[in-house]
UniProtKB/TrEMBL annotation, chain A:
<dbReference type="InterPro" id="IPR006998">
    <property type="entry name" value="DltD"/>
</dbReference>
<dbReference type="GO" id="GO:0070395">
    <property type="term" value="P:lipoteichoic acid biosynthetic process"/>
</dbReference>
<comment type="similarity">
    <text>Belongs to the DltD family.</text>
</comment>
<keyword id="KW-1133">Transmembrane helix</keyword>
<keyword id="KW-0812">Transmembrane</keyword>
<dbReference type="GO" id="GO:0005886">
    <property type="term" value="C:plasma membrane"/>
</dbReference>
<protein>
    <recommendedName>
        <fullName>Protein DltD</fullName>
    </recommendedName>
</protein>
<keyword id="KW-1003">Cell membrane</keyword>
<dbReference type="Pfam" id="PF04914">
    <property type="entry name" value="DltD"/>
</dbReference>
From TrEMBL, chain C:
<protein>
    <recommendedName>
        <fullName>D-alanyl carrier protein</fullName>
    </recommendedName>
</protein>
<dbReference type="GO" id="GO:0005737">
    <property type="term" value="C:cytoplasm"/>
</dbReference>
<keyword id="KW-0963">Cytoplasm</keyword>
<dbReference type="InterPro" id="IPR036736">
    <property type="entry name" value="ACP-like_sf"/>
</dbReference>
<comment type="pathway">
    <text>Cell wall biogenesis; lipoteichoic acid biosynthesis.</text>
</comment>
<feature type="modified residue" description="O-(pantetheine 4'-phosphoryl)serine">
    <location>
        <position position="34"/>
    </location>
</feature>
<dbReference type="GO" id="GO:0071555">
    <property type="term" value="P:cell wall organization"/>
</dbReference>
<comment type="function">
    <text>Carrier protein involved in the D-alanylation of lipoteichoic acid (LTA). The loading of thioester-linked D-alanine onto DltC is catalyzed by D-alanine--D-alanyl carrier protein ligase DltA. The DltC-carried D-alanyl group is further transferred to cell membrane phosphatidylglycerol (PG) by forming an ester bond, probably catalyzed by DltD. D-alanylation of LTA plays an important role in modulating the properties of the cell wall in Gram-positive bacteria, influencing the net charge of the cell wall.</text>
</comment>
<dbReference type="InterPro" id="IPR003230">
    <property type="entry name" value="DltC"/>
</dbReference>
Length: 425, 398, 76
C-alpha cells in the first residue's frame, strides 16, 4: 500500500499532465474567436508565424481582408503603401500582407494550403518579383523560414495523385524542411511516387493536424511584429481628399525629401544602412544576372493552379528595377523584358488577365523606394489599378491551365528560343 | 536504420520510458537485472551511434578496445611495480586519442576526424581517473564488465556528469533498498521534468528565440553596443539552461536506474565569488580538474618543495588547471583567453579572501555586501561566457 | 592525537577558531580549500604517519575538525 501510494505520488502528476496534454492537442479545434485587433496587427506584421499558420489568416479572410502575396516590398511602409491607402481612405477591403524577404512561389503555394476553404472565391493581389526567378529557384534556407509542418499536413490531407500534386510533393522533398518529420516525409514520398495515402495515414495526419493547429492558435500571435502605430502614422500624412494628381504631387515631394543623399534616388535610410559601405563594389556586378531560366516558373504555376482550384480572381503586379541603379550595376533591361514577356505569357495564355505591368517605370522619379522595391509613386501607381479591381465587382474569370508550364523545357526556355516561341503564339 | 541523439526529442523519452520500465519494476522489488541493463544500454548506444552515425560507432569501439587494454595492462603492471615513468606514459596514452581529436580542426587533418565520436572527452576523463586511482592504490581490482558499464553508462555518455568509478560500482553492484529507491525514483522523475522546463522551454526561449535576434542586432550595430551586452546575458542564460537541462535528464535517468550520478549544477548564479562559482557550475568537471590536476600538482610541488610560497604554488595550480580546461574546450584563442580569465579571476579572488581574513574587523559584511558579491560574480561569469561564446571573434575579427 | 590534528589545522588556517568549535563546517565556511587540504594531508603524513591519497579524499568525510580527528584515529 505504502509503495503504491509513493508510486502514485511520483507518477500521478506525470500521467495527469500527459492526459491533459493529449486531450488538448488532439481535440478538434473550438471556434474560439480571434480578435479584430489581432487580425489587424497580423495583417501588417509580415511575421513568419502568421505566414506559416492557419488560424489568423483564416479568420482574416472571413472578414474583408484580401491576401496580398509577395515578398520584401511589403516592408516599404511609406504613406502610399497599400495598407496605408486602404486605411486612410477607408476602402471596402484591407490588405493582409503575406510575404517578407525570400517568400517565393513555393512558399506562397504551401502558405495557402491551410486556408484554401477561406480563400474560395476571394480576390487576391500578387506582386511577382523578377528576383525570385533565379537559376536555382527558391533556396531551401529561405523556404524553410516560411514552411511549417502544419502547411504540409494541411496539404497532405487533400493531396491526390494528380501531376500537380506529385510535382508539389517532389519540390517539397527537395527542401530540407520537408525532411524534418518522418510522417510527413513518408507521406510526401508516397504522393511523389503516385501512390494514394492509406486511411491510416490520413487518420494520423488528421490527429497531427489538430495538434499543430492548436499550437498555431496558441503561439503564432505571441511574437508578432506590431506595425499598427507605424502604418497609422504614415497614413495620417495623406491628404484628406483622394485625388490622383494631388496624391502624386505629395508622393513626389515625400520621395524628394527622403531620398536625396545618393545619386540613385534611393531612400536615405536604406542607402545608409545597406549600400553606403558597399555600393562602390557593386559597379557592373549584376550584368550576368538572369531571371529568365528558372524552376521558379513551375513553382509559380503551382500557385496559379491553387488560384484556379480556389476559384480566386487575382491581379498580378510586376514591379520594375530602379533604372539608375540598373545602369550602374549593369543589370540588363533586355533580360528583364524577356522575363516580363515570359511571365506575361504564362499568365495570359491561361486566362489570368489582370496584370499591372510596371516593368517600364523604373526610371520614373521616386517610383522606387530603393533598388528593387516599390515606394511612393510606385505604390500609388499600383494602387490606381489594384484599388478599383478590389473595390468593384469583377466578372468571374475562366482559367484554362496548361501542364506545359511545369515542364523543364518551359522552365529553362530563354533567348531566341523564347522569342520564337512567343512569336508563334 | 534510425539514429537518435540523447534527450533531443519526445520520442527519445518515450523509448527511455519503455526501456527503463523493467529496470524500475525490478528495483522496486529490490532486484537489479544486470543482463537486461546490459542489453538496454547496448540498444540505446546503438540508437546514438548507429544509423547514419555508424562511423562514430566504429570509432568508439576501436577507442574502447585501446583504452581497456591500457587500463588492464597498467593494473597488471601496478600490482608488481610502481614507476612514475610508466604512470605518466599510461596517462599520456589515455588522453592521446582525445588530444588528436581536439587537434584535428586546428591542423585540418581530415582523416583524423574519423576518430571523434560524441562524448569522447567524458569517457577519457573516466579513463584517466581510473589510471590515477590505480596509481594511488585506491583501485586494486577491476571488474571488466563493471568498467565497461561505467565507461559506457548511456544516460551520461554524451556530456557527463562525470561519475567516479568506485562510487558508480557501489551503486551498480547492488540494488537500493525499496524505500531509498522510491526516493530516488521521485527525484529522478522530478529532475527529468525540471529538465524539460530548462531545456525545452527556457533554453528554447533564450537560445532559439532571443539569441539569433540579439546576435543579429549586435552584429548590425558593430563594436561595443547595448546589443552586445544583451547578447552576453542571453548567451549566459542559454548556456546554463541548455546544459543544466541536459544534466538534469542525465542525472534523472540515472536515478531511475538506481545509480546516484552526481549533480552538475547547484544554483551557480547565486555564487558569492568565483571560487564558489566553480563549486556550483559544471561541478563534476571542475571537481575532476580539482582532484586530478590541481590537487595532485600542488601535492607534488609541496612534497618536492619546488616552490616556497604557498600563494605562488596555488596560483601555478590555478593557471595550469584553467589553461588545460581552456585547451580542452578547443584550440581557439577565445577558449584559451577564457581559461586565463578564470585563472586570474580566481587568483584575484584568493588575494581578496586573504585580505579579508586579515582585516576582518574593518570590512563590513551584511545583506548589501552579500548581494553586491553575487551581482559582481554573476557579471564576471557572464563576461567570461561572452569570451567563451566566440561571438567576439565573429564581431571583431571576421 | 587530537591535539596534533588541531595543531596542524590551526597552523594551516592561521587561526585558532578551529579549536573552539569542533563541529564547524571547514569547506563551506571557506576555512579550508584545495590548497589547504593538500597541506593538511602532507602534514598528517609527516606527523602522524598516515597516508591518504588525493584520489581517496572525500570532502564530506573530512569537513569538520571532529570528523578529521575521527578519520585520523581510525587510520592511525
Amino acid at each position: 500500500m505504502n509503495v503504491k501510494k509513493a508510486l502514485f505520488n511520483i507518477f500521478g502528476p506525470v500521467i495527469l499532465a500527459a492526459l491533459i496534454l493529449i486531450t488538448i492537442l488532439v481535440m478538434p479545434n473550438s471556434s474560439h474567436k480571434i480578435s479584430q485587433k489581432t487580425i489587424y496587427q497580423a495583417s501588417l506584421s509580415q511575421s513568419k508565424n502568421i505566414f506559416k499558420g492557419n488560424v489568423v489568416k483564416r479568420a482574416a479572410f472571413e472578414e474583408n481582408y484580401v491576401p496580398f502575396l509577395g515578398s520584401s516590398e511589403f516592408s516599404r511602409m511609406d504613406s502610399f503603401h497599400p495598407s496605408s491607402m486602404a486605411i486612410h481612405y477607408d476602402r471596402s477591403y484591407r490588405p493582409f500582407l503575406l510575404g517578407a524577404p525570400g517568400s517565393q512561389s513555393l512558399a506562397q503555394y504551401f502558405g495557402m494550403q491551410g486556408v484554401n476553404a477561406a480563400l474560395k472565391g476571394k480576390k487576391a493581389v500578387m506582386v511577382v518579383s523578377p528576383q525570385w526567378f533565379v537559376k536555382k529557384g527558391i533556396e531551401t534556407g529561405a523556404f524553410n523560414l516560411y514552411y511549417s509542418n502544419l502547411e504540409a499536413v494541411s496539404w497532405l490531407l487533400h493531396a491526390t495523385t494528380s501531376q500537380v500534386d506529385r510535382y508539389a510533393a517532389k519540390r517539397l522533398l527537395t527542401m530540407t524542411a520537408g525532411q524534418n518529420s518522418n510522417l510527413i516525409r513518408k507521406c510526401l514520398a508516397k504522393i511523389a511516387d503516385g501512390q494514394e495515402l492509406t486511411s491510416f495515414d490520413k487518420t494520423y495526419l488528421k490527429l497531427k493536424y489538430n495538434q499543430l493547429e492548436r499550437e498555431d492558435r496558441w503561439f503564432s500571435t505571441l511574437a508578432m511584429n506590431d506595425r499598427i502605430g507605424k502604418i497609422e502614422r504614415v497614413a495620417d500624412k495623406l491628404p484628406v481628399q483622394e485625388d490622383f494628381s494631388k496624391l502624386d504631387e505629395v508622393a513626389y515631394k515625400m520621395g524628394q525629401k527622403s531620398a536625396n543623399n545618393n545619386q540613385f534616388d534611393i531612400y536615405n535610410k536604406f542607402w545608409n544602412k545597406r549600400l553606403k559601405k558597399s555600393w562602390k563594389h557593386l559597379k557592373h556586378k549584376q550584368s550576368h544576372f538572369d531571371y529568365v531560366s528558372s524552376p521558379e516558373f513551375a513553382d509559380f504555376e503551382l500557385v496559379l493552379n491553387q488560384f484556379k482550384a480556389n476559384k480566386m480572381n487575382v491581379i498580378f503586379v510586376i514591379p520594375p528595377v530602379n533604372t539608375k541603379w540598373m545602369a550602374y550595376t549593369g543589370l540588363s533591361q533586355e533580360m528583364l523584358d524577356d522575363f516580363n514577356a515570359k511571365i506575361t505569357y504564362q499568365l495570359k495564355s491561361q486566362g489570368f488577365n489582370h496584370i499591372v505591368d510596371l516593368s517600364q517605370d523604373g526610371g520614373v522619379d521616386y517610383f522606387m523606394q530603393d533598388t528593387i522595391h516599390l515606394g511612393w509613386r510606385g505604390w500609388l501607381k499600383m494602387d490606381q489599378a489594384v484599388s478599383p479591381f478590389l473595390s468593384e465587382k469583377q466578372a468571374q474569370p475562366t482559367y484554362h491551365l496548361n501542364k506545359y508550364f511545369f515542364s523543364k523545357e518551359w522552365q529553362k526556355m530563354q533567348g531566341e528560343e523564347l522569342s520564337n516561341f512567343l512569336k508563334d503564339k | 536504420m534510425i539514429n537518435m541523439q540523447p534527450y533531443q526529442n519526445p520520442t527519445y523519452f518515450l523509448y527511455l520510458l519503455v526501456g527503463l520500465l523493467p529496470i524500475m519494476i525490478g528495483l522496486l522489488y529490490g532486484r537489479r537485472f544486470k543482463v537486461y541493463e546490459t542489453i538496454i544500454s547496448f540498444v540505446f548506444l546503438v540508437l546514438t551511434f548507429g544509423g547514419d552515425k555508424w562511423m562514430q560507432g566504429v570509432s568508439i569501439i576501436g577507442y574502447l578496445i585501446c583504452e581497456l587494454i591500457l587500463i588492464f595492462a597498467y593494473l597488471h603492471y601496478r600490482k608488481s611495480k610502481n614507476s612514475t615513468g610508466v604512470f605518466i606514459g599510461a596517462v599520456v596514452l589515455a588522453i592521446l586519442p582525445l588530444v588528436l581529436v581536439k587537434l584535428t580542426p586546428f591542423f585540418a587533418w581530415q582523416h583524423l576526424s574519423l576518430f571523434g565520436f560524441l562524448g569522447i572527452s567524458y569517457i577519457t576523463f573516466k579513463v584517466v581517473q581510473i589510471v590515477m586511482e590505480i596509481r594511488d592504490g585506491t583501485i586494486k581490482e577491476l571488474d571488466f564488465k563493471g568498467v565497461l558499464h561505467f565507461l559506457l553508462f548511456f544516460p551520461t555518455i554524451s556530456s557527463g556528469p562525470i561519475d567516479r568509478y568506485r562510487r558508480f560500482i557501489r551503486d551498480y553492484d547492488q540494488a537500493p533498498k525499496q524505500e531509498k529507491y522510491l526516493k530516488l525514483l521521485g527525484k529522478g522523475v522530478f529532475y527529468i521534468f525540471l529538465g524539460f522546463l530548462y531545456k525545452f522551454v527556457l533554453a528554447y526561449l533564450f537560445g532559439v528565440v532571443m539569441l539569433p535576434y540579439v546576435s543579429k542586432m549586435a552584429l548590425a550595430s558593430g563594436g561595443i553596443s547595448k546589443w552586445l551586452v544583451a547578447y552576453m546575458y542571453v548567451y549566459a542564460m542559454d548556456l546554463f539552461f541548455d546544459f543544466a537541462g541536459y544534466s538534469l535528464f542525465a542525472v534523472g535517468t540515472s536515478y531511475v536506474m538506481g545509480i546516484e550520478t552526481p549533480m552538475n549544477f547547484n544554483k551557480p548564479f547565486i555564487a558569492h565569488n568565483i571560487k564558489d562559482f566553480w563549486n556550483r557550475w559544471h561541478m563534476t568537471l571542475s571537481f575532476w580538474f580539482r582532484d586530478f590536476i590541481y590537487m595532485r600538482l600542488v601535492f607534488f610541488m609541496m612534497k618536492k618543495k619546488l616552490v616556497k610560497s604557498r600563494i605562488t604554488m596555488a596560483n601555478i595550480g590555478y593557471l595550469t588547471l584553467f589553461l588545460i580546461m581552456g585547451l580542452w574546450h578547443g584550440l581557439t584563442w577565445y577558449y584559451i583567453v577564457y581559461g586565463f580569465y578564470h585563472a586570474f579571476a580566481i587568483i584575484i579572488c584568493d588575494a581578496w579572501l586573504r585580505f579579508k581574513k586579515k582585516h576582518k574587523k574593518q570590512i563590513p559584511s551584511n545583506k548589501f555586501t552579500e548581494i553586491f558579491a553575487i551581482v559582481l560574480t554573476f557579471h564576471v561569469v557572464c563576461f567570461s561566457f561572452l569570451i567563451f561564446s566566440g561571438f567576439l571573434d565573429t564581431l571583431f575579427f571576421r | 592525537m587530537k591535539e596534533t590534528v588541531l595543531d596542524i589545522l590551526a597552523n594551516i588556517t592561521g587561526d585558532d577558531e578551529v579549536r573552539e568549535d569542533l563541529d564547524m563546517e571547514l569547506y563551506e565556511s571557506g576555512i579550508l580549500d584545495s590548497m589547504a587540504t593538500v597541506e593538511m594531508l602532507l602534514e598528517l603524513q609527516m606527523q602522524c604517519g598516515i597516508e591518504v591519497p588525493v584520489s581517496d579524499f572525500e570532502r564530506t568525510e573530512w569537513d569538520t575538525p571532529n570528523k578529521i580527528i575521527a578519520k585520523v584515529e581510525s587510520m592511525g
